[in-house]
Write a structure and sequence with these properties.
The protein has 13 helices and 20 strands. By secondary structure, the protein is of the alpha/beta class. The two termini are about 35 Å apart.
Length: about 525
């Protein structure tokens, strides 16, 4: 059979993803061990769809005047003029250069001389706005986070619906359900070969589950909420459930089809009996039932290994925030306000960042996906009359929290390689459902979106792509340099598939060889080191 893309696409609807690849002799994902690659993924989903252009500005001078409102709002500022846009590294900014690659830049709402300032008027705004500090973590010259970050601009999600857009950000293909595995699951599966001692490869801390369509059971997401949520499901601490049943012995590892596998499984008597009973059910019913039973079988073996690991004790001995708090400018218990004190909330109320840090620092995981918001669970799913104003302020607050997380990771040595940091070995992928109609057009759903990549394997301090400024209303993405799966270099408008493929490429996974995304895909040229 000739394996054309169309044939593979048709077959993908009737067969499991990796089962299909294996059947036709295609290699299953196996990450390269190239130095400098990340080995962990932290996905941060900012809930609801974002006005990306209010924090980062890839627009030209003419584009800002065309699409962005004039600066206004006082203590709740929104809108900006070209004079407010600066490169985060404070090098000269050229707003008349329309190129597809620029340094990270955006409207500066903070006071460079006093970043904590919330009272003085911002002269660059024509004194129509007060200084606001949120977002400074990305430009702080002490840490230079911008050197570790790249913004992918203007990707077409091919949808403006919430669920479909979230799935597009996770796997590259819009739809009501997954038609290919999420990048989180693909990476968890690939890293399991290199790091078999990570007992919970794919963890979800809220939001849409990063589906593992067709992948082995170990790539399925484990839903956790906190360290306490581990105790009833992934430990044997409860006497009411485990008294007299904790004793384990290492039994030979056997595949679902009865063939011998290397290694052992730390099984209790109940485990051993259930695994044997599941193997005996193979072939009794349909192929679909066998596939479901095999997933259950592998999940049970994985759970046995996880319980043996005593991950509760590992987590109890792993700190979350520890390094950045030494800097008085970044207290752990910080809070932010819209206005002076009109609406306020704590950093801790924006998402389970502390637990995400514990999981990543513990080396128990390969992928963590975190649902995040602004303070007090203020999401970006809003269509209020003052939408652009509230979106602008809440987004800057939410991204301040993301920035602080990345700073903590950049200060934390890797357990596996002390010459690297936790941020070096982790790719942070920040995404949302979709973009929003540009501020002069309100705050409705819009399919052109962005994504932020920070950390391991990323060429930083750049924005790649832009918007088609010849359009009216809310523009779609402008062409950007991409490397297609064929290896051909092209200039075209990006799509969600390209973002997913770029994330996977950062881990050394090869598009077209190690994974398959329906619809075709390229990789943003110049984002991934090497």
């Amino acid at each position: 059979m000739k394996l054309t893309r169309r044939k593979l696409f048709e077959l993908a609807f009737g067969a499991a993803h990796l089962g299909l690849m294996t059947r036709f002799g295609l290699p299953v994902a196996s990450a390269q061990t190239t130095a400098g690659r990340p080995t962990k993924l932290l996905g941060i989903w900012l809930d609801g769809g974002l006005h990306w252009e209010t924090f980062f500005s890839p627009l030209t001078r003419a584009g800002i005047n065309k699409f962005i409102p004039a600066p206004q709002g006082g203590i709740i500022p929104f809108g900006y003029r070209p004079e407010q846009v600066e490169n985060f590294d404070r090098s000269p900014v050229d707003l008349d250069a329309p190129g597809a690659v620029r340094k990270l830049r955006g409207p500066i709402f903070w006071n460079w001389a006093n970043p904590a300032d919330t009272r003085e008027l911002n002269p660059a705004s024509g004194n129509t706005q007060n200084f606001r500090p949120w977002g400074y973590a990305w430009a702080d010259p002490t840490y230079r986070l911008f050197d570790k970050a790249a913004l992918l601009v203007g990707a077409d999600q091919n949808t403006a619906a919430h669920t479909s857009g979230i799935i597009a950000s996770m796997c590259g293909v819009a739809g009501s359900n997954f038609r290919s595995p999420s990048v989180q699951a693909v990476i968890a599966n690939a890293m399991s070969r290199r790091f078999p001692d990570r007992p919970i490869p794919n963890v979800s801390l809220g939001g849409t589950l990063p589906g593992a369509f067709g992948l082995p059971a170990l790539a399925n997401p484990t839903v956790l909420h906190s360290a306490t949520s581990v105790e009833p499901t992934l430990s044997d601490k409860r006497d009411s459930a485990w008294k007299g049943l904790r004793a384990r012995s290492d039994v030979p590892d056997v595949a679902f089809d009865g063939s011998a596998l290397p290694g052992t499984v730390p099984a209790t008597a109940v485990d051993a009996a259930l695994l044997k009973a599941l193997r005996q059910e193979r072939g009794v019913s349909s192929i679909g039932t066998d596939a479901m039973l095999e997933q259950l079988y592998d999940t049970y073996k994985g759970a046995s290994r996880t319980v043996r690991r005593d991950i509760l004790s590992v987590l109890a001995n792993t700190p979350s925030w520890e390094k950045l708090k030494a800097d008085p400018a970044y207290p752990v218990d910080w809070s932010a306000c819209i206005g002076y004190a009109d609406s306020c909330g704590t950093g801790a109320s924006m998402g389970n960042y502390a637990f995400a840090l514990q999981l990543l620092k513990s080396d128990l995981v390969s992928s963590v996906n975190l649902r995040a918001s602004s303070f007090s669970n203020n999401t970006f799913d809003t269509h209020s009359a003052n939408g652009p104003q509230m979106h602008t302020n809440h987004l800057r607050i939410a991204l301040e929290m993301v920035g602080r997380l990345c700073l903590e990771m950049s200060l934390t040595p890797s357990r596996a390689d002390p010459s690297r940091t936790l941020l070096d070995e982790t790719l942070v992928y920040v995404y949302s459902d979709f973009g929003r109609t540009f501020p002069k057009q309100g705050s409705d759903h819009h399919p052109a979106t962005c994504a932020i990549l920070v950390g391991g394997g990323i060429q930083g301090n750049q924005m790649l792509g832009g918007y088609d400024e010849t359009m009216n209303g809310s523009p779609m993405g402008a062409p950007v340099a991409l490397v297609e799966e064929s290896g051909e270099r092209v200039m075209r408008a990006p799509r969600s598939q390209d973002i997913a493929a770029t994330v996977l490429r950062a881990f050394g996974l090869e598009p077209g060889r190690d994974f398959f995304i329906p619809g075709g895909y390229g990789v943003y040229d110049g984002v991934v080191r090497g």
